[in-house]
Amino acid sequence: MTKVRTRFAPSPTGYMHVGNLRTALYTYLIAKHAGGDFILRIEDTDQGRFVEGALDIIYNTLKTTGLKHDEGPDVGGPVGPYIQSQRTDIYLKYAKKLIDMGKAYYCFCTKERLDTLRASSEASGDYKYDKHCLHLSEGEIKDKLASGIPYVIRQNNPETGVTTFHDEIYGDICVDNSELDDMILIKSDGYPTYNFANVIDDHLMGITHVVRGSEYLSSAPKYNRLYEAFGWQIPTYIHCPPIMKDPHHKLSKRNGDASFQDLIEKGYLKEAVLNYIALLGWNPGGEKEIFNLQELVEKFDYRNINKSPAIFDTVKLKWMNGQYIKNMPLEDFNFLALPYYKKVISKKLDFLKISKLLKTRVEVLSEIPDFLDFFQKLPDYSADMYIHKRMKTNLQNSLITLEKFLPRLESLDPWTFENIEKCCMDLVSDMQVKNGVVLWPVRTALSGKKSTPGGAFEIADIIGKEESIKRIKTGIEKLKKANQ
Ligand code: GLU
User: Fold this and answer.
1) pLDDT class of 50 with cuts at 50, 70, 90
2) What is the percent of the chain where pLDDT is above 70?
3) In this model, does residue 257 exceed pLDDT 70?
4) Would you list which residues are annotated within the binding site?
């Protein structure tokens, strides 16, 4: 059996769209599931789109996500070069072969002529080149080439009959040849079009499975005509459904969360993003949704990719990210959370203790600062926060609690979680009240917030004795004023 070889073929746009990353992932999974090779090829023949630093983004994303390529521009391999702009001679050679076979032809049409042609077909909506240059004589072609008139090379498609191709996801697709445009293979700048280069490279690089977005589906019949003209074996096509922001809009760069970098900057974990993206249009069957890369490799079967568009559901991604955070070792979470702590806390606190409180609550790292601001500084809060029906607290009994609690806290030594807890619980039993009557006012005074990660003991333990006493005193003052 031939070894499975797949390729990820991004254009260096400076941006790793979620859809591109999904293509990379599926491409990788198909190869690795079958014990095959995963190849990286850079498709940079559209020189107008070239962006500085774009290659680094591609390399970095693959590296960070663990999608390690076996061959590529940076690691080499037997069928290089792996950057299309370094392969222009190859494309020209094959284009000329097609010309010799009558399957392609030189076209010298000017932009003006093509514009007129396009304008006149505007009403019908389906522009097609009119094969004008197909009918030039050999002599005319020779003369034009000799006098340096710019040209492109076009595919020569038949005008009758039908071209059929098979896609693993979308099934058999038939197209009337009358609909096939004589697409450009080589542009006037000497570079090939994507449409031509992808076929030549996929063949020469021994690609067995071509994975890409469904936007290329409609061009596939023209690619098949090229494979057939050369007598090459057509690869297995796997076109993936589009990724939508909602049922009517594609997930686009403009949304600000369409790229891998955007998501990482927003505080998502790379493992969670990869896991989530794997499920965008692929269904593993069963209940399990959390898969690491190795599990995906084992499980992935491209036959289970869906045809219908996938909706990028941020709520689901958040949930999944939260699961990854919950399941990671405390030290790892602490390491990732530290830069976010530093945004709002300049005090020297035991961050590991804070991490312990946050780990089960945070879904996305960027939420962290909002959880924590009160550790740095007691917010200005209203005395009404002491009133809690279920806790049976009001302005009066809260004041009593805090006043009784203060001296006990002041004499507490050593300042440990256990002692703080005991101090609170002793007060509960001495006052013969329910826990809430003590714990609600104490936590409110310590945090100035209705909800906090961790309760009164944890907060007091983290902010320390001096700060806790100061905050309880502030609470007493606030309540005294409110009770007047
Ligand atoms: N260079 C194309 C893109 O970035 C890749 C299409 C393909 O994988 O064949 O969209």
Assistant:
1) low
2) 99
3) no
4) 107, 109, 133, 135, 253
In the chain, list all ranges with CATH 1.10.10.350.
Answer: 378-484
Residues 223 and 239: their CA atoms lie apart, in Å, by: 14
Mean pLDDT, all residues of the chain: 95
pLDDT at 28: 98
Q: Is 131 a catalytic residue?
A: no
pTM: 0.90
pLDDT in tens, 385-440: 999 999 999 999 999 999 999 999 999 999 999 999 999 999 999 999 999 999 99
How many alpha carbons lie under 13 Å from residue 342 in its C-beta half-sphere? 6
Q: Kindly give the number of the ligand 1 atom that is closest to the alpha carbon of 10.
A: 4
Quick one: tokens of 196? 């031509």
Here the tokens at position 87 are: 């392969």
Find out whether 455 and 441 touch, Cβ atoms under 8 Å. no
Q: Which atom of ligand 1 is nearest to the CA of 23?
A: 8
Record: fold of 87-240: Rossmann fold (3.40.50)
Q: How far apart are CA 13 and CA 330, in angstroms?
A: 37
- List binding-site positions for ATP: 253
Q: Pinpoint the residues of the chain covered by CATH 3.40.50.620.
A: 87-240
> What architecture does CATH give domain 378-484?
Orthogonal Bundle (1.10)
Backbone phi, then psi, for 166, in 5-degree steps? -115, 130
CA distance 95 to 104: 7
Could you tell me the CA-to-CA distances from 91 to 94, 110, 195, 233, 288 in Å, in that order?
A: 5, 23, 11, 18, 46
pLDDT of residue 255: 67
Model confidence at 256, in pLDDT bands (50, 70, 90)?
low
Nearest to 27 by CA among 70, 82, 73: 70
